[in-house]
């Protein structure tokens, strides 16, 4: 598991990036920022909590044990999963009128809730290195819900797609035919208030609601 600073960033023009956050709220705020920056919307596709009885202990590159508590996936709205189901007759009629828009984009954003146990970090030079990791893994699984002395560290690992992961549509530009003039103004307004340092999701929603009404 990579160890980087909270909210560490890589450019949208580079490879898909990984960011870490101490809370789900901060991760979701970064999701909204990404949508504004790329002018691409993402919808919740999958949300899964791992079965407590089937938790698998992993080890990061610093030899600290951890497990994934929850997995969340957001899919680009231009993906297949977001297509509207239509009857064959309607599809045929529409294809005669205009060229179909590609909606096969597989770009997605994922969030993993990770629980780490730094007190059980193992030094590589220790004797019986592999055996010790096995014993620690069994101990954590057995005592996780009963031992209050276990030191836990909760982190949220977030992955973002790169430009090459998007398909059939542009990023960073308003999509003609899919966004109204009001949407353009709202996106511009969001960029302005986020640039001023306002990152609270509830407050952003309140400001946008007020802006739309006015």
Summarize the structure.
This protein has 214 residues and is α+β, with helices and mostly antiparallel strands.
Task: Annotate the secondary structure layout.
Layout: E1 18-21, H1 24-38, E2 42-49, E3 58-59, E4 65-76, H2 88-97, E5 108-116, H3 129-143, E6 153-159, H4 181-195, H5 201-213
Antiparallel strand pairs: 1-6, 2-4, 3-4, 4-5, 5-6
Helix pairs in contact: 4-5
InterPro entries: CaRF
GO molecular function, one term: DNA-binding transcription factor activity
Pfam families: ALS2CR8
Keywords:
214 residues; alpha+beta; 2 domains; six-stranded antiparallel beta sheet; 20% strand; elongated
Mean pLDDT comes to 76
Strand content: 15-25%
The parts where pLDDT drops under 50 for at least 5 residues are 1-5, 9-15, 82-101, 176-182
Residue share in helix: 25-40%
Derived structural class: alpha+beta
Radius of gyration: 22 Å
Count of helical segments? 5
Describe the structure.
With 214 residues, the protein is an alpha+beta fold. The protein has two domains: 18-171, no CATH class; 180-214, no CATH class. It has helices at 24-38, 88-97, 129-143, 181-195, 201-213, and strands at 18-21, 42-49, 58-59, 65-76, 108-116, 153-159. Strands 1, 2, 3, 4, 5 and 6 form a six-stranded antiparallel β-sheet that branches. Helix 4 (181-195) packs across helix 5 (201-213). Residues 1-5, 9-15, 82-101 and 176-182 have low confidence and may be disordered.
């Amino acid at each position: 598991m990579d160890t980087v600073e909270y909210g560490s960033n890589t450019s949208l023009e580079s490879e898909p990036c990984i960011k870490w956050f101490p809370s789900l709220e901060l991760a979701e705020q970064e999701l909204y920022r990404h949508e504004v920056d790329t002018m691409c919307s993402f919808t919740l596709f999958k949300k899964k909590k791992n079965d407590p009885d089937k938790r698998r202990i992993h080890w990061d590159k610093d030899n600290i044990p951890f497990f994934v508590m929850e997995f969340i996936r957001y899919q680009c709205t231009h993906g297949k999963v977001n297509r509207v189901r239509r009857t064959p007759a309607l599809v045929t009629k529409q294809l005669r009128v205009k060229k179909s828009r590609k909606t096969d984009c597989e770009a997605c954003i994922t969030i993993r809730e990770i629980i780490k146990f730094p007190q059980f970090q193992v030094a590589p030079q220790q004797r019986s290195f592999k055996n010790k990791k096995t014993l620690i893994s069994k101990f954590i699984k057995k005592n996780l819900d009963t031992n209050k002395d276990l030191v836990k560290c909760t982190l949220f690992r977030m992955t973002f797609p790169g430009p090459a992961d998007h398909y059939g549509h542009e990023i960073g530009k308003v999509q003609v035919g899919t966004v109204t003039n009001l949407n353009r103004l709202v996106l511009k307004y969001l960029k302005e208030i986020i640039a001023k340092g306002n990152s609270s999701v509830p407050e952003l929603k309140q400001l946008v609601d007020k802006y739309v009404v006015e």
